[in-house]
Amino acid sequence: MRTTSNPAFRNLPQQGGYADFDRQAGAFGAGAAAADARASQSGFGPAATSDRRLTTDDVVIKTAITGGVALAAGIATALSGAFVLTLPAFIVGFVVSLIVIFKQSTNPALVLIYSAAMGVALGGITGALELSGTQFEGIGFQAVVGTVGVFIGMLIVYKTGAVKVTPRFTKWLIGAMVGVVVLMLVNLVVSFFTTGGLGLRDGSPIAFLFSIVCIGVAAFSLLLDFDQADRAVKAGAPAKFAWYIAFGLMTTLVWLYVEILRLLSYFRN
């Protein structure tokens, strides 16, 4: 049984358990499903939508929608100069993400709110960075292109089987993620008492190396996300589950974008 480094997917029922997820979310039981099937045969009833199983197209479409919302919100924030919304948007996105994760919600409204909020937050950070000096002009566009490029590249790696998502690989990646998070927290705490903390975020050679490691961990985390989505499709998860998968992918993409933006700022600076 594999797990994942993405908190959005970590506690999901594994293997044949996606039907359990559907029941936990309030879906019909076997008896209701049979009734809907009979109703659909006569042209009535909600079976066509409530009992439809997840497909790859569902995942692609929902992920594209959430990504598009985040991108549009980010561009609008950066161009309008509404950087004051950065912190409130980040807080909203963080709170909504906790709700989605702990409730395992497939509510599209919550997922889109998260995407819009994080888009505003990232747009605010990017816009403020570009205005802070001419050396940062166009850095947002480069970060977006880099993020999309990594996403497509890792999708190709997954589909071709160049890197197999095995239990050993999963354990290694989760260990790497835990190590990265611990270092981030320690660096933050130390920075309260010394200038620059451990030097992981000050543009030094160590900071360059740490950012590259973070980008690598985030990129390989996408492989685990793809694997979770693939197994959900094969297990016959409900179609609405595509929103939850899209949310999980968005959380990884947000982290990846931030790390790429940070690394580019080191080069520009």
From TrEMBL:
The chain crosses the membrane at residues 59-76, 82-102, 109-129, 141-160, 172-194, 206-226, 238-258. It comes from the Bacteria. Keywords: Membrane, Transmembrane, Transmembrane helix. InterPro entries: BaxI_1-like. It holds the Pfam family BaxI_1. This is Integral membrane protein.
